[in-house]
Amino acid sequence: QLPPELPPISSFKPSELSFNNVYSKVLRASCLGCHDSGSGRINLETYSTVKENVAKVYQSTIVKRSMPKAPTSPLTSYQLGLLSAWIQSGMPEFSGPDTPPPPPPLEPTFESLKYHIFEPKCMACHAPGKPVERIPLVELKHFIDSPLDIVIPGNAEESGIILTVTGQITDKLMPPPKFPSGEPTGFSKLTDKQIEVLSEWITKGAKD
Questions:
Q1: How many distinct helices (H) and strands (E) make up the chain?
Q2: I need a surface site. Which of 56, 62, 109, 156 has the fewest CB within 10 A?
Q3: Which residues on neighbouring strands pair with residue 178, listed in sequence order?
Q4: pTM for the full model?
Q5: What do you get for the CA distance between the two ends of the chain, in Å?
Q6: What is the pLDDT of residues 134-152, one digit of tens each?
Q7: Are 196 and 106 in contact (CB under 8 A)?
Q8: Cβ 80 vs Cβ 62: under 8 Å
Q9: Long-range contacts made by residues 190-195, C-beta under 8 angstroms, separation at least 24?
């Protein structure tokens, strides 16, 4: 039974009901910080893995509203409605000529890193109104102009972000595995590939 407060399926265009759109609007920013290939949990990165686990996804996000967990913000009514409508429509991977394009590949550019890493892994805490808003990681200037040397263009090895995501600063591993209370955050470490591309971007000057 569809929760009554959610937008009905009829409020969504057929072109919206595709995996690519659900990935872009729901999964990427709200789920992949904890549910990627390196997490050891349910992987929500690909169409096949989401489809395989769709019953669990529906129960936890739409019925029980137990996911996503803090500090990630709860799904909005639009996100819940879109996810539910997509599932009830048979989980189409594609939905015609107006289907949004597939997710772009991870590349050593700021926009690509923001899309694949910073939004799902960092902004749940490092953004205005979030637990660590004093150290924002939203715009390029936040990385380059930080007094904490988060990014030192041309010098990946000494950039704070590389030192923290690789665990070289043991008490400041990012994303943090636990909250100050000791409870697990659920966030998974960056993969070797993500760290490699992040380092490449910094080495090349972190210009865009």
A1: 9, 0
A2: 56
A3: 184
A4: 0.86
A5: 46
A6: 999 999 999 999 999 999 9
A7: no
A8: yes
A9: 190/38, 190/117, 190/121, 190/165, 191/36, 191/37, 191/38, 193/106, 194/106, 194/116, 194/117, 195/162, 195/165, 195/166
Instruction: Convert the pLDDT of each residue in 9-48 to its tens digit.
Output: 999 998 899 999 999 999 999 999 999 988 889 999 999 9
> What token pair was written down for 31?
């789920």
Q: How far apart are CA 81 and CA 83, in angstroms?
A: 6
| Residue 138: closest CA among 45, 22, 32, 29 | 29
Say if CB 202 and CB 155 are below 8 A apart: yes
Residue 162 has pLDDT above 80, yes or no: yes
Q: How far is CA 54 from CA 46, 62, 83, in A?
A: 12, 11, 10
Q: Using alpha carbons only, give the angle 164, 105, 114 rounded to the nearest 5 degrees.
A: 40
Residue 201: burial class (beta carbons within 10 Å; 0-12, 13-18, 19+)? buried
Tokens, residue 183: 């409870």
